[in-house]
Amino acid sequence: MPAHALPHAPGTSSTAPDHLPTLPAHLAYWAQHAPIRPAFTFVDHASSGLRGSHRTLTWQRVDVRTRAVAARLADTVAPGERVAVLCPQGTEYAIGFLAALTAGTVAVPMFTPDLPGHADRLAGVLDDAQPSAVITTSAAADTVGTFLDAHGLRHRLIVTDFVSDHQADTWQPPALDEQSTAYLQYSSGSTRFPTGVEISHANVVANAHQALTAYGADDRRLTMVGWLPLYHDMGLVLSIAAPVVRGLLSVLMDPLAFLQRPARWLHLLSEHPNVLSAAPNFAYDYCAAVVAEEDKAGLRLDRVAALVNGSEPVRPETADRFGAAFAGHGLPADVHCPSYGLAEATVFVSAHRPGQPLRRYALERDALAAGKALTVPPGDPAAVLLAGCGEPVGQAVRIVDPVTATVLSAGEVGEIWVQGPNIGRGYLERGPQTRKTFQARLAHAPGHWLRTGDLGTVLDGQLLVTGRLKDLIIVDGRNHYPQDIENTAQAAHLAIRPDRLAAFAVPAGYAPGGAVATTIAAEGAVIVAEHARGLDAPARDPKDVAAAVRAAVSARHGLRLAEVLLLPPGTVPRTSSGKISRTLTRARYLDGSYERPERGTE
Question: Is 150 helix (H, G, I), strand (E, B) or coil?
C-alpha cells in the first residue's frame, strides 16, 4: 500500500507534505491536521509491577506545550544560543527538545545529574557547549540546580511544567533556516573529551525519513516503542524525530524501568500494532536470559514489525537467542534488523529490512584481520560470525583504504565512508577535526565524505561492520578485533560477567600505574573484566580466570595477553547508551586507576 493510502482516523491526515523542512514545521502540521491523534505516551513504572501508568498527549497538546515553553525560552535567550535539555525520560523531554528548536535556539540534549556514573561527563559537556539556559522539570529542578551550582555553572533555569499554556497565545515563532544547527549530538563515549556534532534541521528531517523508509513505515503505520535514552542519537531520532515527521505514536519508558524488569518492554511491544523498537545487543541477550516464564504470560509479540539492533558489530547469535526465547509468544522470525549508524550521520546509515531472513556471514578470522572477508562454513572454529546491516537509504556508502583514500573492492575491509543529506555540519568549534572527518575526499572523485572511523566490508550488497579503526589491537604486526577477543574471553570462564569486559592495546614497555615495566616487555593486549555477581571467592579466583582466558585467547587468536584484570561488578565504565567504553577503560588502566587485589598476571 503506498504511503498516501495509509489508513487513518476520519478527519485526520496520514502523511505530512514532503517539503516541510524542520521538526517544528511537522509538529505544527500534525497539530492542525490530526489534533486529537495520540502523539506521545509515557509509561511510568513507579511500582514494581509489569504494567505502569500511562500518560498520553495528543498532537495538539504537544504543540501547545512546545510553543509555550518556546515562548518562555525566547524571553530568556536569543536565537542561535545553546540550551541544554536536562529532563527525565518522558513527554516533558520531548517538549523541552522541540521547544528549543521551535525558539530557534540550539538544543543540547543531555540527562539529569542523577544518572549514575556520568556526572563528570555531564559537567564536561556543559563546559564544552556553554549553554545560555537549561530546560528541566519540577521533579528534577532541585537536583539540576544543585549540580549546576556545585560545578560553577551558572545558567538560567526553565522548568517546563511551570510554564503556563498562555505563554503560547500571542507568541510567534521565528523563521528557521533548515541549514542552521538544530541541536548538538554528543557521542556517548569517553567523558574526558566530549565532542558535539552539529546536526542541522535538514539533517534530522532527512535522517528520520531515511530510517522510516528502511524500517517499513512507508507502507504501514508504525508505533514507536522505546526505552533508549532520549539524549542518545538513536533514541532521539526513533522516539522523537521520526514520530514527529510521520505523525506516529511514540510510547516511551525509562531505561531504568527496563533494566529493573525487562519484561516491561516486552509487554509494551505486545500492546500496540506494528511496533518498531530498538535496543543494543546486551538488551536482547538480557531479555532472553532473565525474563521468567511467569513474566511472559500474556505476551503477544506477533504484531512486532521491526526490532532494531544498532550494536557494532551485530551478533547473529543474539537474534537467535532472543528469537528462541520468545517465538512461542508469536515473535516473527524476520523482525530483527541489524543496523549501522553514528552520531556524525545524525544516526541512521544502513539497515537490514524487516520481513527478510537475517543475513549471516561466517568469515575466516585471520583473513579478516588481514583485510579480506573470506567466507567459511559457520561451524569452522576459525570463523567470525557477523550479521549483515543491509543497505543504506538515501545515502552513499563506500569502503575506503584509510591511507590512500581509494575505494576498495567488495570483500575487502576498509574504513566506512558515507555521503548524504543526513551528514552533520561538523564538530562544535573544532575546525581541524571537522575538516578531517566531515570533509574527506575520495581519490579521483568529487564531493565531501564522512570518515566514520569504523571498519567494514560489503558482501552480496550487504554492509558488514567489523569494528572500530581506533579500537583495533595491533600486536606483532597482526590485527585483532577487540570484540572478537572479548567474546573468546567471556566464554572462557563462567566467572566473567557477559558483555562487561574490554580488550585493548597497551604500548611497549608499559607497566600499570607508570611503574617500571616488569611483565609487559613489548606491545601487548590487556583484558579488563568484571566478575559475575553472587560468586564466592573460590569461584572467581583471579588466577584461575586469568589462566583460562589466556589459554583461550592464545589458542583461538594466537595472542599473548599482557594482563587479565578481574574487577568487581560495576567497575568497567560504560557509555551513556550502555555500551562498554574501551576508550575510558584503557585510559583508567593506563593511569593506574584500577586497584589490583585480584590481579591475574604471569
Answer: helix
Closest CA to 437 of 205, 183, 195, 202: 195
Per DSSP, what are the bridge partners of residue 336?
307
Residue 28 has which C-alpha cell? 505544527
Q: Where are the beta strands (DSSP E) in 124-230?
A: 133-136, 156-159, 181-186, 196-200, 223-226
3 state SS of 303: coil
Q: Is residue 503 within 8 Å of 524, Cβ to Cβ? A: no
Q: In this prediction, what percent of the chain has a pLDDT beyond 90?
A: 71
Rg, C-alpha atoms of the chain: 24
C-alpha cell at 124: 564536561
Query: How far apart, in whole angstroms, are the C-alpha atoms of residue 337 and residue 197?
Result: 26
Q: How far is CA 317 from the centre of its chain?
A: 20
DSSP annotation of 15 reads S
CA dist 95 and 161 (Å) reads 10
> Half-sphere exposure of residue 481, counting CA atoms within 13 Å on the CB side?
26
Residue type, 49: G
Task: Give the cell for residue 328.
Answer: 512461542
Predicted confidence (pLDDT) per residue in 196-206, tens digit: 999 999 999 99
Q: What is the pTM of this model?
A: 0.88
8 Å CB contact between 106 and 133: no
Per residue in 515-539, pLDDT tens?
Answer: 433 333 346 899 999 999 989 988 9
Specify the DSSP element, H or E, that contains 41: strand 38-44
DSSP strand pairing (462-468 vs 450-459): antiparallel
Residue 13 in grid coordinates: 491526515
Q: Which residue has the cell 536565537?
A: 79
| DSSP per residue, 506-535 | E-TT--GGG---SS--SSEEEEEEEEPTT-
Distance CA 65, CA 74 (A): 14
Question: What CA–CA distance (Å, rounded) separates 146 from 114?
Answer: 11
**Which range (107-116, 181-190, 401-410) has the least confidence?**
181-190
DSSP labels, 533-545: TT--GGGG-HHHH
Nearest to 209 by CA among 164, 248, 155: 248
**Whole-number mean pLDDT of the chain?**
90
The grid coordinates of residue 381 equal 572454529
Q: Where are the beta strands (DSSP E) in 150-297?
A: 156-159, 181-186, 196-200, 223-226, 250-253, 275-279
Mapping DSSP to helix (H, G, I), strand (E, B) and coil, where does residue 337 land?
A: strand
**pLDDT, tens digit, 9 for 90 and up, residues 245-279:** 999 999 999 999 999 999 999 999 999 999 999 99
Q: Give me the mean pLDDT over the 144-162 stretch.
A: 89
C-alpha cell at 136: 528541566
Using N-to-C axis directions, what is the helix angle for 59-74 and 23-33, rounded to 10°?
140
